Amino acid sequence: MKLIGMLDSPYVRRVAIALDCFGIAFEHVPLSVFTTYDEFRAVNPVVKAPTLICDDGEVLMDSTLILDYVEASRVVAMSLWPRDGAELQHDYRALGLTIAACDKCVQYVYEQNLRPPAARHAPWTERVLAQARGGYAALEREIAQRTAAFAELSHASLMAAVAWGFTQSMMAAEIPAAAHPALATLAAHLEGTEVFRRYPPAGPGAPGL
Prior knowledge:
Helix 1 (10-22) links the parallel strand 1 (2-4) and strand 2. The chain has helices at residues 10-22, 37-43, 63-73, 85-113, 122-145, 147-150, 155-171, 181-191, 194-197, and strands spanning 2-4, 27-29, 51-53, 59-61. Helix 1 runs antiparallel to helix 7 (155-171) and helix 4 packs parallel to helix 7 (155-171). The protein starts with a strand and ends in a 12-residue tail after the last helix. It is mainly alpha-helical. The chain folds into two domains: 2-79, Glutaredoxin (3-Layer(aba) Sandwich); 85-193, Glutathione S-transferase Yfyf (Class Pi), Chain A, domain 2, CATH 1.20.1050. The longest helix has 29 residues, at 85-113. It has nine helices and four strands, in the order βαβαββααααααα. It has a four-stranded mixed β-sheet, covered by helices on one side. 57% of the residues lie in helices and 6% in strands.
């Protein structure tokens, strides 16, 4: 099994940490969608990170689908989903908020760093930023209200931490940590754990940064 993509992507990092937690051996192949585009395209013509090459050679995409496949198809010692139905619903909401906010941050970063200044559309940029801020504000409330649930490593807490790390590395001025104390505390705690430290968010980032 091979995980393709750079760890500066929160989605690639999410999968790497989860696979490690599951005790599943994998080879990390750090290809960039920017600096090694052609090499990545040879593996996956969509050039989407993360890409997972299964043991039989089939290629999977999307961090959530990859992790759903892993938990559904393999005998793992643990699950990162809660067993209680109500808690599962809450975690689905939190994960959805995080992925949405992170997606909007990626769009904002790409708009600011890949599109020529003359071609940028301010209303679109403002809309994307407002969506990211709205997602993180809602996630902050979720974490503050469910502190005990987020104290455990889960799909929701893992994604929240890696997404927050990405956002703070790219957009700390636009989405300040001071406005998200519960999220910042959660991320700092998880970033200090051994499994997170094994997969630092290293990579070229978006061009121009």
